[in-house]
Design brief:
Helix content: over 70%
Distance between the termini: 53 Å
Order of helices and strands: HHHHHHHHH
Shape: globular
Number of helices: 9
Number of domains: 1
Number of strands: 0
Largest sheet: none
Strand content: under 5%
Length: 225
């Protein structure tokens, strides 16, 4: 059973990234090092965010079990740096829009997977203990990939001058949602008392909304029949 558990966790966490890289056509463009550069951009942005948060946002010292709504909102605002980092990763690549989006998103998501989920998944899924949280982390990595693809598409759309003006407001709302998604999910979890699986479902629903919204905006820029 532990070996089966390890196989599930490993496949859920890593294979979707490999399949996306192969089936999206990135392998045909030899985009591996481009993805590595996008991942390095992610690491630099996260380092800058950590230094900024440690300097200007001290640890919450309120009542035990309390939730600093304003403080967490301000911390979430720092995630605007992620959009700037994605814009930088997109600008470093030449080619079609879909190629630039996938390179930036794959590099960004893979770097996040390696830094935040690689070690826990590897240690927990080796059969030391059977715990559903490692399976949840594997599913969560796929949700993160979808979110990063949607965010990269939205950032790319924001730089397009041929986007109809009537779609600028929906684009801005989707960009704001991509920035504050973690804050909204955490606040909803605190307010509604969501369990791990319910929180994962809410995260998947939010990723689906971002993806469908980005796809709807992208369709407007496709050439007509």
């Amino acid at each position: 059973m532990t070996l089966f558990h390890f196989g599930n966790c490993f496949a859920l966490a890593y294979f979707p990234y490999f399949i996306t890289y192969k089936c999206s056509g990135l392998s045909e463009y030899c985009a591996f090092w481009r993805c590595v550069q996008a991942g390095a951009t992610y690491l630099l942005v996260q380092l800058g965010k950590m230094l900024f948060l440690a300097t200007f946002f001290p640890t919450w010292e309120g009542a035990a079990g309390g939730y600093d709504l304003v403080g967490e909102f301000m911390k979430a605002t720092v995630d605007l740096a992620d959009l700037a980092g994605l814009q930088l990763a997109l600008g470093r690549n030449a080619g079609k829009g879909e190629y630039k989006i996938m390179v930036a998103a794959m590099g960004w998501a893979t770097a996040e997977l390696l830094t935040s989920r690689c070690v826990p998944l590897w240690v927990g899924a080796r059969g030391i203990e059977f715990d559903w949280r490692y399976l949840q982390m594997g599913l969560d990595s796929n949700i993160s990939l979808a979110q990063h693809v949607a965010a990269a598409a939205l950032v790319w759309l924001s730089s397009r001058h041929d986007l109809p003006p009537r779609l600028r407001l929906p684009l801005g709302l989707l960009l704001a949602l991509s920035v504050y998604k973690a804050f909204l999910l955490e606040w909803a979890g605190q307010a509604l008392g969501l369990g791990p699986w319910a929180a994962l479902g809410a995260r998947a629903a939010l990723a689906g909304a971002l993806g469908l919204g980005a796809l709807r905006l992208l369709v407007t820029l496709l050439p007509g029949p």
